[in-house]
Amino acid sequence: MNTDITQADWFEQAKTLSTAEISDALDALKLPGSAFGIQPIAGPAKLFGLAFTVRFAPIDRAAPGTVGDFIDTLQPGTVAVLDNGGRLDCTVWGGILSQLAAHKGLAGTVVHGVCRDTAEADAAGYPLYANGRFMRTGKDRVQVEAYEQPVSLGDVRVCPGDLIVGDADGIVVVARARLQEVLQKALATRVVEEQILASALAGTPLTEARKQFNYHSLQRAADSPLNA
User: Fold this and answer.
1) pLDDT, tens digit (0-9, with 9 covering 90-100), for 36-51
2) Cα separation of 55 and 223, whole Å?
3) Cα-based distances in Å from 53 to 24, 25, 132, 189, 227
4) Model-wide pTM > 0.85
5) Which of 15, 41, 28 is nearest to 170 (CA)?
6) CA 54, CA 58: separation in Å to the nearest integer?
7) Given this structure, which CATH class describes domain 32-174?
8) First to last CA, the chain
């Protein structure tokens, strides 16, 4: 984890941003990142941290292996991002992993696929996101194909060290190389939206307040013809 990033003032401020605010900033900068189909499953619906990626593949009967030993290497604050190809028929995350991850201080887990033992994640207060839940084990059905390589969360590519943010609305991914640009855009947009709300609450018609602060251009790319 890059301490220059995680200790920067703008990074600390960004921990208060919602996924909607970050998604709007991604749109304004013409960047992908909103992970369709990934939703909060268990534990607190709040997650913020840099990704450690794991990609799974169907089992090779000659070398079955295990699916969770990587957790021993993860540092506090890390988000485990597990790509099981969106499979809904078997899990790659369960109760032992949730309890151990909570004990180690991981920020949360996001699965492109399903998870199980969700009551244990709830009891541990551990943030768990996935496409859904299903009880059947992935043992002897899948195996780890790669660590710390690009993976997918639905229609979004995730690279090691990318920022993962989650709340009740889902998951957004911010590429590491664009972190400061995206997060500062989201923070600046929040200020404008707060001004619009304050003006409207003070009695200005919402239509006028939005016009005054250029609301309709906030989420558009700077070169959009709609800004003309």
Assistant:
1) 999 999 999 999 999 9
2) 37
3) 25, 24, 19, 30, 38
4) yes
5) 41
6) 14
7) alpha beta
8) 42
